[in-house]
């Protein structure tokens, strides 16, 4: 039986003046604003899509993921419907919408996508009373540079309409390809639901010595670890990589179920909010501890007895021990990623 093509609609709207993305942070606002202000999310998504040159946009592939916070699935549906209407040919989405920011970057580079959209407000609280956000990554897997963010903002200030396929529905739970015939489109629009961890895990296998790490976690001189995913996106990664793949006991990982409100605590990996991890580490039983923020691109490291390792020192430790990491032994190193909290220790 022949399928009826899905209509592509053009919806009239009015611009907002407050949709300037803040660099790598994207657009971050109270969730209630996205839910209550008419077309607030569609406006920004249209501005984001329109910032990609039409010739590059037509038929291209983009990656979509979220940290699982409240409003994510509703937002993903809108992103999918608008991507289809704007000529994107294929979307790659993590199962149930879950993809960490590093995993989105990894997939963009792996499949040579045009970019990626991540629905997250980083370490900000979730739930109806929390915050929601939209980040855009470009073709190199990095956050949109200022020139792109400014282009999105300029478009948002004059936007009068957006394109959408409101009847398009995607099953985020089903792995594999889903195809949709759209009005006025010669080729079907495709959505591929992928395992949230697989591609990123394969990348890590090519970088680190998994056998050495497995021996550290399971061998005769094993170190006990404690990892807190803070009910954010990193839960499935921690379970799959550290426990299933590298052999750490299941009780090494805590708060590994992504929750829409992150269990009522801000998913902020610091000494104020990662209190369960801090208390466990202070007992002296564990030799290494770590916590992650909601979308998995920021961490906190603790040593035995709760010793705090700041980000500047952790980067310097990696830099001083590159010979232990197979990827850098093979490929060499071109430099170190500087940021404000990782500034001077690497020099020393």
TrEMBL record:
SUPFAM superfamilies: Phosphoglucomutase, first 3 domains. The keyword Ubl conjugation does not apply. The keyword Phosphoprotein applies. This is PGM5 protein. Residues 23-162, 200-305 form the Alpha-D-phosphohexomutase alpha/beta/alpha domain. Residues 1-27 are annotated as: Disordered. Transmembrane segments: none annotated. It comes from Tricholaema leucomelas. The lineage of its organism: Eukaryota, Metazoa, Chordata, Craniata, Vertebrata. One of its GO terms (biological process) is striated muscle tissue development. Pfam families: PGM_PMM_I (PF02878), PGM_PMM_II (PF02879). Keywords: Phosphoprotein. Belongs to the phosphohexose mutase family. Coiled coil: none annotated. InterPro entries: A-D-PHexomutase_a/b/a-I (IPR005844), A-D-PHexomutase_a/b/a-I/II/III (IPR016055), A-D-PHexomutase_a/b/a-II (IPR005845), Alpha-D-phosphohexomutase_SF (IPR005841), PGM (IPR045244). GO terms for molecular function: phosphoglucomutase activity. One of its GO terms (cellular component) is cytosol.
């Amino acid at each position: 039986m022949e399928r009826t093509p899905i209509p592509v609609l053009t919806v009239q709207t009015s611009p907002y003046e407050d949709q300037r993305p803040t660099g790598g942070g994207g657009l971050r606002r109270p969730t209630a604003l996205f839910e209550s202000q008419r077309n607030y999310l569609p406006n920004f998504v249209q501005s984001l899509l329109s910032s990609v040159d039409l010739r590059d946009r037509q038929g291209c592939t983009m990656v979509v993921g979220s940290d699982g916070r409240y409003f994510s699935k509703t937002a993903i549906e809108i992103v999918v419907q608008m991507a289809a209407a704007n000529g994107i040919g294929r979307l790659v989405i993590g199962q149930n919408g879950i993809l960490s920011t590093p995993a989105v970057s990894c997939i963009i580079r792996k499949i040579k996508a045009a970019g990626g959209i991540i629905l997250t407000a980083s370490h900000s609280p979730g739930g109806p009373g929390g915050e929601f956000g939209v980040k855009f990554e470009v073709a190199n897997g990095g956050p949109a540079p200022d020139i792109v963010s400014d282009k999105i903002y300029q478009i948002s200030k004059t936007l009068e309409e957006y394109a959408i396929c409101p009847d398009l529905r995607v099953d985020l739970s089903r792995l594999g390809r889903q195809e949709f015939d759209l009005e006025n489109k010669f080729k079907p629009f495709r959505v591929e639901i992928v395992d949230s961890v697989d591609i990123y895990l394969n990348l890590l296998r090519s970088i680190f010595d998994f056998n050495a790490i497995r021996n550290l976690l399971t061998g005769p001189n094993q170190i006990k670890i404690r990892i807190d995913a803070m009910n954010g996106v990193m839960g499935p990664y921690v379970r799959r990589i550290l426990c299933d793949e590298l052999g750490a006991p299941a009780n090494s990982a805590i708060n590994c179920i992504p929750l829409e409100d992150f269990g009522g605590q801000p998913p902020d990996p610091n000494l104020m909010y990662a209190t369960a991890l801090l208390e466990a580490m202070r007992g002296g039983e564990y030799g290494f501890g770590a916590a992650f923020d909601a979308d998995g691109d920021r961490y906190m490291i603790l040593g035995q007895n709760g010793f705090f390792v700041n980000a500047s020192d952790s980067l310097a430790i990696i830099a001083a021990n590159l010979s232990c990491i197979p990827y850098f032994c093979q490929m060499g190193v071109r430099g170190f990623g500087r940021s404000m909290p990782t500034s001077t220790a690497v020099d020393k």
